Every structure is written in C-alpha cells, then in structure tokens.
Amino acid sequence: TVGAVARDAQGHVAAATSTGGLTGKRWDRIGDSPIIGAGTYADDRACAVSATGAGEYFIREGVAHEICARVRFTGETLKQAADAVMAEVKDLGGTGGVILTGPTGEMAWSFNTPGMYRAKVSADTPRIVEMYEEE
Amino acid sequence: TGWTLVIHGGAGIIERDRVTPEQEVAVRTGMNAALDAGTAVLKQGGSAMDAVEAAIRVLEDDPNFNAGRGAVYTWDGRNELDASIMDGRTRDAGAVAGVGVVRHPISLARAVMEHSPHVMLSGKGAEEFAREQKLEIVPPGWFGTERRREQLDRLRGNDKLSWFDIDLKYG
Known about the structure:
The complex is a heterodimer of chains A (135) and B (171). With 135 residues, chain A is an alpha+beta fold. Helix content of chain A is 25%, strand content 34%. Chain A is globular, with a radius of gyration of 14 Å.
C-alpha cells in the first residue's frame, strides 16, 4: 500500500491511498484503503490520514476518521491521536501504520510493525526518508 | 505555515537483515521520486489534492511498492487495485475497489469524486467509468512482476502460511 497526505500553502489538507491489497486475496476481498474513514480521511478542521496495514482491523476501528475526530474534539496533537488509535488497533490484534499532516503544519506517523516505508518534507524542514523502526 | 508532504510505501516486516542493499536503494529512490513529484506541486502553490495525486502516481508506477505496477496477486493470479482520495477543504471523497486495467487507480478515485455523484465505484463498473473519463487503460499484465508472482506461489504452495505471513505483506 502507498499513501500521501499534504497541506498546501492555502492551509488545506488532502489524503490519498492506493494498494494492491493482500497477497492471495479471494472472494473480491476489499481492505481499508478505499474505505473513507478507515484507510483514508481528510478534514481541514483536524488532519489528513493515510493508513497501511491489516485492513480488516483498520475498518473495524475506523482508524483514519477516529484519529481526525480525536484531534478535532480533544485537542490532541496528531502524534498523540495516532499513537492512541494505533494502540487500540494493536489491542484488537491488528498491525500497520499511518501518516498524518494537519492544517497547522504538523506532520506525524505512527506504526506498530517492525518497519514502515515513510518520508516527509515541508517548506521549512528537510526531507526525511526512513524504512526501519529504529531509524 | 507553509506546505507539508508525508508519504508511506507500506508497513510490515521491514528489517535490515530481510532487505537487500539493492532493495533498500530502490525503495529509497522511489520514495524520493514521490516526494519530488508532490513537492514540485506544492512549491508552485499547487493544491494539496494535486500534490497527493502526483506523489501516488509515481509510487503506482514503481514496481517496488504494492500499488499499481508491482501490486500483489490475488489467489486467482490477477491484480485487483483499490484507491481513495479525500479533500479536507470540502470533505469530498472518491474511491475505487477491485479495478484491474486502470494504470493510475488514484486518478480514477479522483475522477469518481469530481465527475460522478458517488463516493465509491467497484470492479467492471469502475473500469467502464474510467474509459468514459478517458483515463489511461493498460493490459492486466502491466501490473505483474516476477517477485509478486513468487510470493503468490509461496503462499499457494505452503498451507502453513496464512495471508498475513507473506513478508512485506502490506507493501
């Protein structure tokens, strides 16, 4: 799965996710990537999220929308909200990760797997490209 | 505050002793190319929507990621692609599921958002809509790679493996 989130100079956010799904999937299985609110969500009032992981768990938790809702209603930072929701995914038995950005310019990611291909850059910060958990 | 861009290329069992130096270079090169595409949009004052679509299109063309070209195989040996996009400004959204002949599923998802009254289209209907929108159609073989075929063969040939056991299972 691949994903991207962005905030433009006008302060608007967007999220996108694309995937081939799960190796060996059958029965026209669909994961979380195309499910708005599970694998993808964007709201200028909160943040933009793209997810990758065990889709069935992300669908059940409503991960992307749940993160945005926590940011919007509790005032948590993107990182706090993402870590909290990913911990709940882990409690269910699910693994994967999310990337986020928000209208304030905050960027974050959170994952509970041994690694995640991830990268970020902004108008004010140099790019970072990482793969492994310990980076 | 200026623009921001964050991308991912999948999560899973990504550990130093399981990734060859060549794979690592290829993945980092692909991620940098996607950042380049999105950054080019944002630096010129373009929209977040255009930036995320541009970044995803690069990754969909890169066989090192599980999307577009390089996507995993279904049990029946096909590539079934899903994608979605959402605009935080209006909360408009578009998604497609189970498409197999559209080179850039993310652009089809955006077309669903912008040129249909619906949020999600699937399968043959989504492909018919893609043709009507004059998006690029490719033969199903476009998406396949030898590495993904080997992963499917491993899964099919070992009944002790589950769908969740294939390495880099999410991309």
